[in-house]
Amino acid sequence: MLRAEAGTISLRPGQPPTPIWSLVAAPADPPLRLTRGDELKITLRNELPLPALLNWHGIDGVPSAEPLLARPPLAAGDSETLAIPLRHAGTFLCDLRLAGDGASRPLPARALVVAESEPVAVDREEILLIEDWRLRADGTAIAPGADPDDATPLYTVNGELALEITARARERLRFRFINGCQRTVIAVKIETYELRVMALDGQPAEPFFARNGAIVLAPGGRADAFIDAGASAGAMSSILLHDGKQARPIGRLIVSSESPSRDAALPAAPPLPSNGLPALLDLKSALRFDVALDRETDWTMPAHFTASAAPAFRVKAGRTVVLAMANRGKLPAVFHLHGHHFRLLDRLDDGWKPFWLDTLAIGGGETQRAAFAAEHPGRWLLEAVAADWAAPRLVGWYSVE
Predict the structure, then answer these.
(1) How far apart are CA 382 and CA 58, in angstroms?
(2) Which end of the chain, N or C, is less packed with Cβ atoms under 10 Å?
(3) What is the greatest pairwise CA distance in the chain?
């Protein structure tokens, strides 16, 4: 059971905690963790004084879980139950933010981990759910959609201002990085380590080392990366976050004085087991659609959304779709595709990057093209928002028939 309720978070050391809205699991509050092939059955109880709308990042092909299209906002005091078949392993995210713009308090996010049914060659894993806050001088936090000029930006990891992780020498760790920020595109790195990216947005990738050691994530984006802890006991490396303005430490990785996990470093890990997404996409016969992220006439705010409005596009199941996503604004814009993952295409549409995504940040004045196989019949949301705290979150939809 998940409860949406009033809560607090400590954002000012030595000062009273800050009121927020919380999303907690009952009776305990561990990370949500299951295995591929399981069914996740969630009952959401809304104890907030406003409607709640559970939104998922990374769950493909479950039209009954779609907010607004299949599930209207849950009224205060009501409950609903949802069953989600977990066909894919990976790192996922759920939140209540789709209807959170302008709320009296910011709304939370939660990680969902779906483990592979096959063994993965790591010693242990760490979840890093990174969230951003805008804090006023009186200690109150403002929700997005409001002017943040008088507020200080802060970041937490797993609800804490700093995180300390201890590893044994030569221990292999799997980091599940989650950008749970409301509007901020971030880059994350661990000093002195190369991050070997194994999955993005929950889907296995052809392994590669992060460029300059940093993983860039749009809000809602996720990355799984492996590292092998160093051999020197006591070695400390800062975990750094860059938000486009400055780099700031959000944690530390420390090599403990315990006996090493092994005598020699492990060989490079093989790719993660496939989730069964198609190896090839038929770009030549693809249906092509333009998506203007900054043209507000093509979008609506969630509070005003109606499924009777015309979809952005319709497509028959089994077809390949190419989207040209244009951001003619000055700020980066974030695009989130529900229902399917997509490949980011090369500039000449003659190939694609070796990973899948469901969320993409597009720079101001840029156009990016992406392709996906329309495998899942149903009605699916599209989300767009500028990377600015006061910008409205916007939605549209598409249909696979």
Answers:
(1) 13
(2) C
(3) 63
